[in-house]
Specification:
alpha+beta; Jelly Rolls; 3 helices; binds fe (ii) ion
Length: about 170
């Protein structure tokens, strides 16, 4: 593991253990906003050779994951939350238009939930946002983008509910 990633992973561990819940995540996001305006750190963590979802680090005790994402073209996702987990999105290159939603109708196992937009904003390089458990959001990217994300757990192992914007 390179030094930049080692340092970031250790800071995440310390803050998540010292400040459980949203407070620790906000400390990580604030740190990422400083770190990711440093081009050496950016190129180290999310080089242009990164894939669409590269797992850089998973903490053996706390379970959080540090991920690099490099999207060479447009990339959108439907409204979603991260189930029992939280996520931090940090923009590294390009821009993401992020929407957040109010829940209008709960999702069930076989029926998508209904959501309505409550805010829309642009994420630009150096911007980092925390999405706590249950916060519904959807990113739209019309041009190539890169981002760093930190998730509370490995979301590839979690079944997600579907939601539709009304
Ligand atoms: Fe997400």
């Amino acid at each position: 593991m390179n030094e930049v990633l080692l340092d970031l992973s250790q800071k995440c561990r310390t803050w998540l253990e010292t400040y459980p819940g949203p407070a620790g995540r906000q400390k990580i996001a604030a740190h990422l906003e400083e770190l990711l305006i440093n081009q050496d750190a950016v190129n180290n963590l999310v080089p242009l050779t990164a894939g669409e979802r590269d797992l850089l680090y998973q903490d053996p005790d706390l379970g959080f994951c540090i991920l690099a994402h490099n999207y060479p073209g447009p990339k959108t996702a439907p409204p979603h939350d991260h189930g029992p987990s939280w996520a931090i999105y940090a923009q590294v290159r390009g821009e993401t238009e992020m929407r957040e939603y109010d829940l209008v109708q709960q999702a069930t196992a076989d029926t998508p939930g209904k959501v309505s937009v409550n805010k829309t904003y642009q994420m630009r390089p150096g911007d980092a946002y925390v999405y706590d458990e249950g916060v519904l959001h959807a990113p739209t990217r019309t041009e190539p983008t890169s981002l760093l994300r930190i998730e509370g757990t490995d979301m590839t192992q979690v079944k997600r509910m579907k939601y539709e914007q009304i």
